[in-house]
Amino acid sequence: MKEYLEIDFTITPAEGGRDILLALLDNLGYDSFEETPKGLKAYILEKDFNAEEIESLFIFHSDEYEVSYATDKLENKNWNEEWETNYQPIFIDDKIHIRAPFHEAHPEYPIELLITPKMSFGTGHHQTTRLVSRLMLDMDLKGKKILDMGTGTGVLAVLAEKRGAGEIDAIDNFEWAAENTEENAEANNCKNITAIHGDAEMLPGRKYDIVLANINRNVLMEDMKTYIDTLPTGGYLVISGFFENDFEMLTAKATECGTTLVNKIKEDRWMACQYQKQ
Ligand SMILES: C[S@@+](CC[C@H](N)C(=O)[O-])C[C@H]1O[C@@H](n2cnc3c(N)ncnc32)[C@H](O)[C@@H]1O
């Protein structure tokens, strides 16, 4: 059985510091995150935990933030109880309501997504999930074949199906995420989503009209060409999971791979971009 560690970070000031630490840990391969009032909880397989690597992150040595952490094995936790107490429903503009089955319904929102996150990222609490959702609301997804790479809870895949998408492959390199996506797809009566445990290595030979990839800067830089290779001329790549200071570098890469930027939005310092293959 795989043992997970929970790392509970205290960041002072938490505002601002939390986002920076999340991005840094995401680049180190941490699987899943939960914001807390005093900072952030992050999760990783026990065998992959490296204290030295964490403590060498610049935020630990910055004059602006004070960071400390405590680790805890996850095996004795009642995970469901934990997230149920912390998970509040999310409203994206006046269009999307993301909630757990035990939250009150709000039929006045045109799109409702039922998401039970368990260990996976993607309840809509994070800016990047909201950013990609907003871009998707402005895109024609009807009948389109979609790849949701780094699917987490499957929230974007479920949104894609609600917006009329055809087949959707929801892929994540964290095996719990693929399981969780299957459960969430079922809870939303989605019939078009295939949840897969994997990564870009399985893409050659597959074809999509639209690729969504809310992951992180390093994975995007490394795998963007493989994502774009699955698209036809006119197909779209939507990326998020990075800060505005990485925009130039990612856009240069996307341009080099044969796309042009057609839309970009941001929330706080997080960004999402839409590129079209030429
Ligand atoms: C920022 S979360 C996004 C979750 C969800 N799509 C959303 O928008 O809320 C990134 C997800 O990408 C996954 N991931 C990280 N590196 C990956 C890789 N190389 N290939 C596929 N998935 C990856 C993580 O396990 C995590 O679930």
UniProtKB/TrEMBL annotation:
Record keyword GTP-binding present: no
One of the Pfam families matching this protein, by short name: PrmA
Top-level taxonomic group: Bacteria
Similarity comment text for this entry: Belongs to the methyltransferase superfamily. PrmA family.
Broad class of the protein's primary localization: cytoplasm
Location of the protein in the cell: Cytoplasm
EC numbers on record: 2.1.1.-
GO cellular component, one term: ribosome
Protein name: Ribosomal protein L11 methyltransferase
Annotated positions binding S-adenosyl-L-methionine: 129, 150, 172, 214
Chemical reaction(s) catalysed: L-lysyl-[protein] + 3 S-adenosyl-L-methionine = N(6),N(6),N(6)-trimethyl-L-lysyl-[protein] + 3 S-adenosyl-L-homocysteine + 3 H(+)
Keywords tagged on the record: Cytoplasm, Methyltransferase, Ribonucleoprotein, Ribosomal protein, S-adenosyl-L-methionine, Transferase
Organism: Owenweeksia hongkongensis (strain DSM 17368 / CIP 108786 / JCM 12287 / NRRL B-23963 / UST20020801)
